[in-house]
């Protein structure tokens, strides 16, 4: 694949402009809006046209940037730990409601630190637990921020 | 005005606010020092903490973080040649060679003195310029505001870098598109919500700033780990050498500091330009002013080459507050984040801020000066210790940064859906970072999008749907003429380059 990274980006924008423009047609109008100079669709239409035009220009104009191909840009990177960290963040979001702030944070930090290469459990726990507890303490006890206890604990009648 | 200054002074020197400047400078220095994390991330990380604060206190903390982050970026530029902030890249040109020669302490001291002088001179300019511009801008109408926003967005794209103009325009347009998601404020109609309740309020600015900067920057550290050099190891052990600067050296750099302060401030005031451009221009200007002998030292450890960008980037930081505080228009990604924070405190920046909220207006300006003093007095002696924080292993630090970013947004909305959106936005931001598409114009577009649409709508309604307001009002026409010039400048340059290229090819062919 010889597409440069600039052209790849521009192509994505061109597709986005079309999708955005088509979606803009779905915006409902109020009765009488056809006589108005400015409606809820005006700005989206203008943006879709402008984005389409500019991305088209980037696609057809001669290369100005580094010209590096996108396949080269994406090679040789640490994809595995990055993707695992992103999955951990999604899991953290899912765990917050059932497990509560404290437990889910400790689990996220432990898993995150382990994923990034720290294998000594003592260091992992000494970083994760005090950070989570310290932050929880500042929020709940000092700043009076309400953090709902985990649903599991509520179901078990602990901390409710 | 004097009343306002006194009111601002009393607010800024209250014990809580002084503590905030100190905490802000310290936290900013630390975050700015971490390679990969810049002032936008540093400020974005502070927003959730400051939600319950008084607006003045919140802004004072953020101004401290801004200065601290720029200073911290200089520190990592000098010590390990890894600028945490784009505005301090030029600092590494001469700062790092000085550190390699064993003068890291001196380089840091000069950076601190230059930053202090640049920030101080610019704060005085701000004291004069901001109220003057605020009173002029009271006569601005929606058409002028619309034109100003177009100018700001065009300028931020024009200054994005060589060959990057159209790409930056695309990113600005993306920001504007994102700002249209949610319920249209005037008509109350849903736009691009796909029926989702979570999208009705639109995308939160904090979520976007955190995901595109703090989160994606931290993830980039994992994706592209940088090898640590021998100098970095030494610096983190606190071996910096003497911090003394001689009288002759001060005499040598004094005129440089004066020139760069003025240049930096005015570049900072321009919408779209900022610390990065100011620092590069100041560096280039000093190299041009230098004697043939001195010129040779540039890039090899010249004190002038270090003082110029350091002064200019701090002066530009103060300058960038002028359009933010007086017009409510941010000129850079960093001030865009601050604008978002101000709005979330219930304060609308703009010409009325000066009249309605003088305490916020003046206390921010005065706290900048205090911030500069604190940076000089406290951070300089603390640098050897702060530098040791660079030794903290990344595998411990990165998950903590990710955690703070996620929780910062979650605490404000209490909605776990936001965490998932953040991961999704961060993934897109990483894609843009990898293909070198700048993210700051997107953030600026997002922040200005709503205001731009509102002002255009109002201007059109006032003019019965006619676009003639664009050329009939002298202020609007003037601002749009400048915008046109900025737009055409790269085009003219391209044509000239193409002609030169053709001419040289023809000459080669003849030869």
UniProtKB/TrEMBL annotation, chain A:
UniProt superkingdom:
Bacteria
Entry keyword annotation includes Transmembrane helix: yes
Q: Which InterPro entries match?
A: DUF1468
What range(s) does the DUF1468 domain occupy? 9-147
Q: Does the keyword Transmembrane helix apply?
A: yes
Transmembrane region positions?
A: 43-61, 73-93, 99-116, 123-147
Tell me one Pfam family matched here: TctB
* Keywords attached to this entry: Membrane, Transmembrane, Transmembrane helix
Listed name of the protein: Tripartite tricarboxylate transporter TctB family protein
Q: What phylogenetic lineage does the species belong to?
A: Bacteria, Pseudomonadati, Pseudomonadota, Alphaproteobacteria, Rhodospirillales
Automatic annotation (TrEMBL), chain B:
Q: Any idea where the DUF112 domain is? A: 18-444
Q: Would I find Transmembrane helix among this entry's keywords?
A: yes
Q: Which Pfam families does this UniProt record tie to the protein?
A: TctA
Under the heading InterPro entries, the entry gives: DUF112_TM (IPR002823)
Q: Which UniProt keywords apply?
A: Membrane, Transmembrane, Transmembrane helix
Q: Which residues cross the membrane?
A: 20-47, 59-80, 107-130, 142-159, 165-183, 203-223, 262-283, 324-347, 359-383, 395-413, 419-449, 470-492
The superkingdom listed in its UniProt entry is Bacteria
Q: What protein is this chain from?
A: Tripartite tricarboxylate transporter permease
